[in-house]
Amino acid sequence: MKTKGFGRQGWWIIIYTLLLYLFSSSSSDTLNVTTMGHAMILGLSESSTLLIYAAIGGFVSVPISLVFGTVVKKFGIKLPTVILLLLYAINWFGFGNCHTIGGYAIAATLISALGNTVNLVPTQQLINNWFPRKKGIALGWATMGMPVDSAVSVAVFQILMNKMGFKTPFFLWGIILVVLVVVLLLFVKNTPEEAGAYPDNEPISKEEMETNLKLVNEYQSPFTIGKLLMTKQFWAIVIIFGFMFMALVGTMSQLVPRLMYVGISQNTAIMWLTIASLIGIPTSFLWGLIDQRMGTKKTVVIYSVLWTLMMILSAFGSGMESVPVAIASVIFLSCMHGGMGNLMPSLIIQVFGRYDFASANRLVVPFVVAIRTISMLLIPVMLAVAGANGNIGFRNVFIIFSILSFIAVTCSIGIKDKCIGKM
User: Fold this and answer.
1) Nearest to 144 by CA among 365, 342, 293, 299
2) Radius of gyration for the alpha carbons in the chain, expressed in angstroms and rounded
């Protein structure tokens, strides 16, 4: 008997995953306003140099996400995520209380490293465990958390820092993450079988459920690190999403300063970021719907082509110092934002299947994080080379992102999406 929807427990997993996407994305999105505040506290004249520590954190997250992914593969998603979220919460408290360059370097590095890991490992693993066939729609709902964060966190941080003091939003985020830890301990299960529910909310027999649960707990994937490194599909996924995520993180973390360079005030730039992010909430679901209806590979091809066009438009906006073109590129970005987090795990599930996803994802994530982190180094370097003309610096950044996005298009067309893992 087929059922519609995700079921009560399935919806709870989607909502919780959405919250993980939201609060993990804050580590990069809030750099739009926190770097300026930290620069003033630290007595620095230029805030963009602080992005270097976020970049270092991105590289630090490579071994962290590899170790975390391996632990999840062995012990399940729940308890490792409890520890990860507690560490992430503690660092938010510390990040708001930095008064020296050394303290900032440590806090910013850890926030970036742990945020990246939360954003890409427990989120994707939960959706894989619960919705192996309805992954497109489930991710469409869950990844709304990323544009919601862009719409909410930057504005909330800006308001609270102005009204209640610089430290306030950092402490608030830490408290919320502690609450998420408690919720995880009490109400979240590793798999639907463990919760007495069904994968995809599609009823199966008691015997099948017991077999599935045993297989999830005991299955030994043949996809070792060595085998993955020899698999063409693995490298294609890394290139596609590494290059596009690089552009996403670079664009979102410096969207407000970029708009300010073309002549828009900070408050107006934040307003446009909020408006664009609100547009991105329903389009995040739309990408999941397209994925479910058209298939993951076709959707990734369409997405990567549109992403390349958006990068080209962004380059024109900065190079021409055009407010209308820059705003158009931001709205275009809003329609694409949520799809990134949706399509990466969806393609991994498509290629490697439910049971081998954890093995593949533990290595895909570190590689993608390492590549996307380069944007945190690229932007300050390009701005420094451009000197006083920041628009030229951002134009050059987007030209590089356009070239990398075109390479992602080529890989998305060429990847073979037939499942090579256990069905």
Assistant:
1) 342
2) 21
Residue 249 predicted with pLDDT over 50: yes
Structure-token match 């007495």, residue found: 196
CA–CA separation, 408 vs 405, rounded Å? 5
Amino acid at 390: G
Q: What is d(CA 313, CA 145) in angstroms, rounded to the nearest whole number?
A: 25
CB 48 within 8 A of CB 35: yes
Return the residue matching tokens 């909502």: 15
Q: What tens digit of pLDDT does each residue of 169-212 get? A: 999 999 999 999 999 999 999 888 888 888 888 887 778 777 77
Whole-number Å distance between alpha carbons of 169 and 157: 5
CB-count exposure of residue 328 (10 Å: 0-12, 13-18, 19+): middle
Q: The tokens of 158 are what?
A: 């800006």
Distances (CA, A) of 117 to 16, 61, 96, 344, 368: 16, 6, 20, 15, 11
Confidence of residue 63 (pLDDT cuts 50, 70, 90): very high
